[in-house]
Design brief:
The structure holds two protein chains of two kinds. Chain A is 25% helix and 23% strand. Chain A has helices at residues 11-27, 34-62, 72-106, and strands spanning 117-127, 136-138, 151-154, 158-164, 172-176, 185-190, 220-226, 232-237, 255-258, 271-280, 286-291, 301-307. The N and C termini of chain A lie far apart (73 Å). Chain B is globular. Chain B has a two-stranded antiparallel ribbon with strand order 1-2. Chain B has a single domain, classed as Arp2/3 complex 21 kDa subunit ARPC3. Classes of the chains: A alpha+beta, B mainly alpha. Chains A and B meet through helix 1, helix 2, strand 1 and strand 4 of A and helix 1, helix 3, strand 1, strand 2 and helix 4 of B.
């Protein structure tokens, strides 16, 4: 019986066999090919030292993003102002949450304590090689305490997305909110935060409607779905706002903030973006298109907010511009 | 053909692809140039034998494993093993078939072949991804938009190929590739 030695393997046969195996693995479900992820982790590690300076160089060549001040002091002030706005909105929502908790306590329901948040700023070292996917690759991983589901923000308050599984030792991947696979999210439109808007006008909310708190003025609920072209699109919910106050006109530039119970408590009221377009559908519903404040594909670094770590409760205090939760 | 210089060139072009591709993308259309396919086209045009397909296969695999895709629900990402590898092998085969009809010293040869190779790779990988969508409930392939963006990306690849082509030609002897003078015909 002839023995099979390495030299007796025909390269042509080997190539054909490799191709056949790859055709098979190409159509197999992801859970059956975990080795692709491990191999990707190794390659990412190997390429990162070259990839990062290349990204940084091109970013430097392109200059700052539109709408972002170039002056460092002005930028710091803007970030700080946004950070205070966020805290104000979070406080409003916290009041609402506490009100609901009181109601629930009275009903004897168990409650979850609020979670501590630790912030970690990490550079975006690149993206996947598939342009149809907008997943961001960030140089921070398990070793830095990043866990799947952590929330990523930019400039402290602008929502970027969530950390996806698996988190490698030194690298993690973030699915931006604008990626099709990110799915829908609930948000609130704050008309009083439009550029050049007058002083906040309060709008009463029908009792028990779950609508906006009157403390911070009008806010309208909307369900936004990524359209795959960098926008989030969805209908506006007018239920809960008093009929005599439904004459608020939604306009371009109004700020939209996250208000979704499927996201961590610490992520609530983060800025999703600004309204770019307002439309009325055939059935008379109002639909808005929201664009994130910054192009999520051109971020140089992101801040990852890791929640659920009691040891880091002390880090909840603000750490300068963009810091704090 | 020398393995080390080719591996080094592949490494640098992969880093270029990962770092620059999203930044050179045209808005949110997903249209962005390819870099690695330029090297595959270059080696397919000047290389010999099965080595060409081996390089194409490896470079395609590298693209596959670095293409993290978000799973529905955004809770996880996953990589695929195969679509680009097979696409790149098919692209290399197409270049080998076509190279006999081209003036190999023309400055436009590599850009042209890069566009053709990228288009071929997109067609093959999209077809495989479509087949995958029949079996994998987690994977939904938007074939139309993917093909459209892929074809436009293939055209866009001509620009970096124009820049990289002279550089690769200078490195041709370092890579141990045939400079074309010893062969009268492509194959």
């Amino acid at each position: 019986m002839p023995r099979l030695s390495p030299t007796s393997i025909n390269p042509r046969t080997m190539l054909a066999a490799s191709c056949a195996i790859l055709v098979l693995t190409a159509v197999l479900p992801g859970r059956l090919t975990p080795f692709a992820g491990w191999a990707g982790e190794l390659i990412d590690l190997a390429v990162a030292p070259v990839q990062r300076p290349m990204s940084a160089g091109l970013r430097w060549l392109r200059g700052p993003q539109a709408g972002r001040p170039t002056d460092a002091q002005l930028l710091a002030l803007q970030v700080e102002a946004d950070s205070w706005k966020l805290r104000s909105r979070q406080a409003e929502q916290e009041v609402e949450r506490l009100r609901n908790q009181i109601v629930q306590l009275q009903r004897g329901l168990a409650l979850n304590p609020s979670l501590a948040v630790r912030q970690l700023t990490a550079p975006v070292i690149g993206f996947g090689s598939d342009a149809s996917s907008s997943v961001l690759k960030v140089q921070a991983g398990e070793r830095n305490g990043v866990i799947p589901g952590s929330v990523a923000v930019f400039d402290g308050v602008n929502l970027v997305g969530r950390v996806a599984r698996p988190v490698d030792a030194r690298v993690c991947r973030i699915t931006p909110i604008t990626d099709r696979s990110a799915g829908a999210l609930s948000a609130r439109i704050f008309p009083n935060e439009a550029p050049g808007s007058p002083a906040p006008a309060t709008v009463d909310v029908l009792p028990g409607s779950g609508g906006a708190p009157d403390a911070g003025g009008l806010s309208l609920e909307c369900k936004l779905t990524p359209d795959g072209r960098g926008l989030l699109v969805g209908p506006v919910e007018w239920q809960g706002v008093r009929p005599d106050q439904q004459n608020v006109t939604l306009a371009q530039g109004m700020v939209v903030r996250l208000s979704d119970s499927s996201w961590p408590q610490s992520a609530q009221m983060l800025v999703v973006g600004r309204i770019e377009r307002v439309e009325t559908t055939d059935v008379g519903r109002t639909r808005v298109s929201v664009r994130p404040m910054f192009d999520l594909q051109r971020l140089g670094e992101v801040t990852i907010r890791v929640s659920g770590e009691p040891d880091d409760a002390a880090n909840e205090a603000p750490r300068g511009p963009g810091g704090g939760s | 053909m020398k393995f080390l210089p080719i591996a080094l060139a592949g490494y640098l072009l992969l880093a270029l692809e990962l770092a620059l591709r999203p930044m050179l993308a045209l808005g949110s259309t997903g249209i962005a140039p390819h870099f690695v396919i330029i090297l595959v086209a270059f080696i397919a045009m000047n290389g010999q034998g099965l080595f060409i397909y081996g390089v194409a296969l490896v470079m395609g695999l590298l693209i596959d494993v670095t293409a993290a895709r978000a799973a529905p629900g955004a809770g996880a990402t996953f990589a695929m093993f195969g679509p680009h590898a097979i696409g790149y092998v098919a692209a290399a085969y197409l270049v080998v078939t076509m190279r006999g009809f081209l003036l190999r010293r023309s400055p436009l040869a590599i850009p042209f072949l890069s566009v053709v190779a990228a288009a071929m790779a997109v067609i093959v990988s999209s077809a495989l991804l479509m087949v995958r969508s029949w079996f994998d409930a987690d994977w939904t392939a938007a074939l139309g938009s993917r093909l459209g963006a892929g074809m436009a990306s293939a055209l866009y690849t001509a620009l970096p190929a124009l820049v990289l082509s002279p550089l690769l030609r200078r490195l041709q002897s370092v890579m141990g590739l045939d400079d074309g003078g010893s062969r009268r015909f492509g194959r």
